[in-house]
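Before the break, one more example. Copy the sequence into your notebook; we will annotate it together after we see the structure.
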Amino acid sequence: MSVYTIVEREALETFLQQYPLGQLLEYQGISSGIENTNYFVTTTSGEFVLTLFEEMGEKELPYFLELMAYLAEHKVPSAHPLADNDGHYLQHFYDKPAALVRRLTGSEILQPKLAQCQALGHSLGHMHTATPGFPLYRANGRGPHWWRQIAKRLQEKLPETDNHLLQEEIRFQGKHQHDNLPRGVIHADLFRDNALFNDDELCGIIDFYYACDDVLLYDVAVTVNDWCIDLETGQLDVARLHIFLDAYQQQRPFTFQERENWSVMLRAAALRFWLSRLKDYHFPRPGELTHTKDPEHFKQILLARRQLPDDCQLPEA
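Here is what the structure looks like once it is written out:
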């Protein structure tokens, strides 16, 4: 959610006339995140988030906006997009696709507590059981094909040891097929900065712009690799892990096949985000406000996941 497009007040006032939101009071760029331009916008009708989509094509966006509306209407805590005066979620601003959503209360968590991990596990499990009726489909654009593509692009930028680790892990993942694992709509990026809390209450899950249809267990692994770890070492925090997984399983019990593939999926999730961080670090995009995340953090997590302790396995049903 870096700022790549500078929004002028007069242009924003004109844009907002397409919505029944009253007068613009103030607005401010948001620097956290990576992909899109985002602003907090306050009008006489309330507080909102404006997103200008910097890379996504217009054909992709209905999936995300319709999904956000679907989830909010099915009691998954998330921000409902706003319809303009003609009933459309998607608009254009500065010749780019744009959308407004209601700004949720709460703030992101730096050091998750047990109760917060429990609340998040419950909501992710609920999301995975609520979305089979969602009618749209989107493939995962950052799956194995993307891993290989980015690893090749990075080859000349990385030391030999890192290139060796990447190729070794990509080969390892290629030996595992996941056709027998439950699939559905996943968030695919449920990090600490994409969930908002008031104390222990989960107010909302945000930033669904990596959402897609893929293995549900992969979504669990992505989330665990950020919420249930020691930030210094990358090792899993057993207490947070267990309370998260138990809360999730109350909504959707894990299958035998998922328990067999848990270690593989944790490694896949770590690999994907190490590659993403490496790409952003070595091939940055220009932006007024940017937030580049340290690739070494996910390299450390990947190395830690290559030996999964016995007390970090998925719970029995």
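Residues 256-282 form the longest helix (27 residues). The domain at 9-102 is CATH 3.30.200.20 (Phosphorylase Kinase; domain 1). Try to locate both features in your own notes.
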